[in-house]
Design goal:
The structure holds two protein chains of two kinds. By secondary structure, chain A is mainly alpha-helical. In chain A, helix 2 crosses helix 3, helix 5 runs antiparallel to helix 9 and helix 7 crosses helix 8. Chain B is elongated and about 55 Å long. Helices cover 72% and strands 0% of the residues of chain B. Chain B is an all-alpha fold. In chain B, helix 7 packs across helix 8. The chains are: A mainly alpha, B mainly alpha. At the A-B interface, helix 1, helix 2, helix 3 and helix 4 of A face helix 2, helix 3, helix 5, helix 8 and helix 9 of B.
Chain lengths: 207, 188
């Protein structure tokens, strides 16, 4: 037997998971050839060492850990992400858009009953006496302003304090406030009901 | 592949948690064994084993029921190991084996040296060779199954196992490990 043949045969035996010493021709050649003997001994050592490698047992509870990782997020969080968050986003859009829509609608059709912000906006500016032929701005007196606020309060049905407060707000704030008013009262109990439905005290079992 | 594994997989796909637990318990040793051999670190092997099962179960629908299940599962585990090894920048896998052999007698000392040398040599061969070698000699997979697991032709799997053996043997001879074993083989 040649050395090349010896190595081919050895590989074949190992591929078949048969012990090399089971083949008589291999044994015979290994006795005569020191190089092939060492080659065979190295293979024996390798397989013997591989069998001796320590193999610890996997830690207990692997199945439980896998199941825990596979379970979906807890129901409260799922409810939050699936329903509450989109609802909150939709509500925010409504809150922002409604005043703008109301304002546009009022401008196009005209209100049936004058609102404070509309009256304040349509009120002509007070002017000072003319100087040099031109019409110069005139400063309103305290009594005049008071009379105008009282007249607005009577006209709109709002309290005098509310009329004064609203007439000094910026225009955008007046629009948002008037848009929020009809939304606030029905939305409040709805939000309270949603918050009660979320079990916020539940503990996360995965942590 | 046996029909009971197919049935187990079918129950897993239906969302049966007891079937998932049974599947994990049935194959955990095979997966953990491969991970431990490839990574050489118990905690890493535990983590990768868990991650492999989670991935496998989430992707059970992709498994071709006409093929063997174990190579498919081990392929997932081996890929996770490879990812972790690349993160480790191909640091050689070493296993702390000193505590495994408390006896200091010459035979035990010799066995410890041999396993340490084999372990050291395994950490030095190319990753594909090592994986193929371990799947064949340690996990006892056939070449066809190794081809499935490593997504390569059977011939390639065979070549990798042969190269791994040759490289490992060369390393053992270079380090003089074979001399001791050689004395024991004089009788053959």
């Amino acid at each position: 037997m040649q050395c090349a043949e010896f190595r081919t045969l050895l590989n074949r035996l190992l591929d078949q998971r048969r012990p090399p010493e089971s083949d008589a021709r291999l044994r015979s050649h290994a006795r005569e050839c020191s190089e092939c003997h060492a080659f065979l001994a190295a293979h024996e050592a390798l397989l013997s060492g591989l069998k001796g490698l320590p193999m610890p047992e996997p830690e207990d509870g692997l199945a439980e850990r896998v199941l825990l990782e596979l379970r979906p997020a807890r129901p409260a969080r799922r409810l939050l992400y699936r329903f509450v968050m989109p609802l909150a986003a939709a509500a925010a859009v409504v809150v922002v858009l409604t005043p703008l829509w109301r304002s546009a609608w009022q401008n196009s059709t005209g209100p049936a009953r004058p609102s404070v912000d509309r009256v304040v906006r349509s009120e002509p500016k007070a002017h000072s006496p003319a100087v040099g032929g031109a019409v110069a701005p005139r400063t309103r007196t305290f009594a005049e302003s008071g009379e105008q606020y009282a007249a607005l309060a009577r006209e709109t049905g709002e309290s005098l304090a509310a009329v004064v407060r609203q007439s000094h707000r910026p225009r955008w704030m007046q629009q948002v406030a008037s848009g929020l008013k009809p939304l606030a009262s029905p939305a409040k109990p709805a939000f309270n009901a949603v918050l009660r439905a979320i079990p916020s005290t539940e503990r996360d079992s995965r942590s | 592949m046996s029909d009971d594994v197919r049935e187990l997989v079918r129950c897993c796909l239906a969302g049966d948690e007891s079937a998932i637990a049974a599947l994990v318990e049935r194959f955990e040793k095979a997966v953990f064994g491969l991970c431990f051999r490839m990574l050489g670190h118990r905690q890493d092997a535990e983590d990768v084993t868990q991650e492999s099962f989670v991935r496998a179960i989430r992707n059970l629908r992709r498994w071709d029921a006409g093929r063997a299940f174990v190579p498919w599962l081990l392929a997932i585990a081996a890929n996770r190991c490879r990812t972790l090894l690349s993160v480790r920048m191909r640091r050689p896998a070493t296993i702390g084996m000193v505590d495994q052999f408390p006896d200091g007698s010459p035979d035990v000392q010799s066995a410890r040296n041999l396993t340490e040398e084999v372990n050291l040599a395994l950490g030095r061969v190319r990753e594909e060779y090592r994986r193929a070698f371990l799947l064949f000699h340690d996990r006892q997979l056939s070449y066809a199954e190794i081809g499935d697991a490593m997504d390569c032709p059977i011939g390639t799997a065979k070549t990798w196992v042969h190269r791994a053996r040759r490289e490992l043997v060369e390393q053992l001879r270079e380090r003089g490990v074979v001399e001791e074993s050689s004395h024991a083989m004089r009788g053959i």
